[in-house]
Q: What sequence folds into this?
C-alpha cells in the first residue's frame, strides 16, 4: 500500500503520469486493458494470496502484449520468478528490482526510464543469484531426481527410497545413474560417488 501511494508522486517528480494504481492482480490486468500504459510497475506478491500474483499478472500481460514494458519489484530475490520474467519475449523491456534499492531515487528513476524504453534493469543481487544457479549442476536435475537425491542425503538405501517414492528399485537405480551423470561424477576408485552427489546437493541447498 505504501508503494502504491508513494510511487505516483515519485513518477510525477520525473515527468511521468500514473494512469492507475491498483491493489490486486485482477485489477492490474483490467487497468492495463483500459489504459494501455507505456509501463507497468508491479510487486511480485499481491492480494489475495501474497505469493506470486503480481508476477503471474506481469507474465500474462507480456504474453498478450509482448512489447509492454514491465518492472517488477520484490522484497527478496526469487530466482525462479526473476528467471521466468527475464526470459519472457527475449527479455526486452523488463526489470526486476529489490525494494530495498528504492532508496536511491535517481537510480530508480533511471531504471524506470530504461525499462520503458525497451531495455532491462536488473538488481545486481538478482544477477548474482542467477549466475550461481546457472553454475550449479544440481539445477539440471529433474524434480524426481532431486527427490531421490534428497532421500540419499538422509542416508536412505535404494530400497528405502523406492518405498518412500512408491517406485521400483530399478527405477531408483535409473534415477541415481542419471543424477551421477548430470553431476559429472564418473566411476572413480578413490571417491564414493554417492557421497559426492550428496555433498553437491547440500552445497546447492546452502546457496539457496
A:
Amino acid at each position: 500500500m505504501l508503494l502504491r501511494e508513494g510511487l505516483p508522486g515519485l513518477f510525477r517528480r520525473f515527468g511521468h503520469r500514473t494512469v492507475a494504481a491498483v491493489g490486486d492482480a485482477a485489477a492490474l490486468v483490467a487497468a492495463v486493458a483500459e489504459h494501455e500504459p507505456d509501463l507497468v510497475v508491479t510487486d511480485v506478491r499481491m492480494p489475495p494470496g501474497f505469493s506470486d500474483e503480481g508476477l503471474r499478472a506481469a507474465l500474462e500481460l507480456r504474453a498478450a502484449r509482448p512489447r509492454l514494458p514491465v518492472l517488477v519489484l520484490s522484497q527478496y530475490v526469487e530466482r525462479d520468478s526473476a528467471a521466468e520474467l527475464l526470459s519472457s519475449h527475449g527479455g526486452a523491456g523488463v526489470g526486476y528490482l529489490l525494494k530495498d534499492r528504492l532508496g536511491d531515487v535517481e537510480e530508480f528513476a533511471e531504471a524506470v526510464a530504461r525499462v520503458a524504453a525497451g531495455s532491462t534493469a536488473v538488481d545486481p543481487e538478482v544477477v548474482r543469484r542467477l549466475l550461481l544457479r546457472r553454475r550449479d549442476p544440481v539445477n539440471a536435475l529433474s524434480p524426481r531426481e532431486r527427490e531421490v537425491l534428497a532421500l540419499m542425503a538422509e542416508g536412505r538405501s535404494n530400497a528405502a527410497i523406492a518405498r518412500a517414492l512408491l517406485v521400483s528399485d530399478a527405477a531408483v537405480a535409473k534415477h541415481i545413474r542419471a543424477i551421477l551423470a548430470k553431476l559429472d561424477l564418473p566411476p572413480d576408485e578413490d571417491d564414493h560417488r554417492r557421497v559426492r552427489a550428496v555433498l553437491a546437493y547440500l552445497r546447492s541447498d546452502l546457496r539457496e
